[in-house]
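Changelog note: in this version the structure field was regenerated for every chain. One regenerated record is shown below for reference.
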Amino acid sequence: MKLVVLRFVVVALACACALVVISNRRTPQASTKADDFAALYSALGMPLPSQAGAQEKPVEQVEKNIKVLNGMPASQIIPVMNYFAASMGRRCNFCHVNNNGQWDYAADTKPEKNTAREMVKLVLEVNKNTFKGEPQVGCYTCHRGRNNPQGVPTLPLALPSPPPGGPGGGAGGGGTPGAQPQGSPTPRPTPIPADDIVNKYIAAIGGQAAIDKIKSRTMKGTIVGANGQTLTYESDQSGPDKAYEMFKTGQGTMERAINGNTGWEKNPQGVHELTGGQFAQIKQQSTLFRNLRLKEQYTRMRVVGRDKVGDRDAIIIIAATPDNQQERLYFDAENGLLLRRMTFLRTMVGVIPQQADFLDYRDVDGVKFPFTVVTAAINVGSPTSTTKLDEIKLNPAVDDSKFKMPAATPPANP
């Protein structure tokens, strides 16, 4: 018991001030149209493009004044900063310097930034020494969206409901004053095999034979962020590993594509190759059979329980990917459709979730697809975005040149 208490105290201390820690993405400068284009990535819940080159570099080789996140992949810096901000209920200017619209991310002017470094060190030590290096604790463990973690119970305590066995609680009676009652465990029913759940889903969307006939797909619609920003969206997908996407917004147009084992992105700052974690994430989320051939994507799956997604009862499957990452899949208990898919980005300071909810399934040439997707991400500025598709076409002719990386162009704002 003492060890458990000690661990909690250490974690509470470790999380006391961790926020937008140690990064600098650029030297001090005024905002430009290219900088404003970052709002598009925010609406998509995606990190800004990494300029790390063919092989992703650690963050300290790409950013400035990195002192405690050394060794972390450069593509994780923005998700980690968003994670700190969400954990604390704060924004970037809590630790970083902004002088009349000019950011100086590298500056150590604010004491909160140096305090945060010390607290992150403690978090890393707790995970290393207590959890064998696994990121079991992080800022959110204690803060839960508050600047100061709440370590003292709020009074008055909620009146506990009577425990099983009547007012006396059965044998022993009494109990610890103020403690919430814990009912006797009820026997769990034998879980349905995960294969059966996935097979039901395949049948619900049209069957394996109909899925196997799909060779390409095009989609058109809009994406609206929680911050109100609206993007026009188009997508062309071909075969198992080719995908092209275009996003249009008031700040300009962004294009990106996956072409087998390579990828690229074009925005007002120019053309660059997708690499490392950013390439892996976009490839995972944008290819044709992402939600059609689930079994091929996992090495093992198991049913772990039930939950609600909106007003629907859902069966939850935990699935392991070949690189030993985990996802959670939520299937409608009644009709078998996929309601939610959660992915998790493991970083040295915590696990960062992202989820997509699938709504408004419609039949397209014998296969059902969701025409609305609500994505939730750890992003304080735009925590959710909603994709509404106006059109889905199966097996259209897709120009293969769309997937090829265009020639480099000068940035729109040199």
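Spot check on this record: The chain is about 20% helix and 30% strand. Confidence is low (pLDDT under 50) at residues 1-36, 47-54, 169-178.
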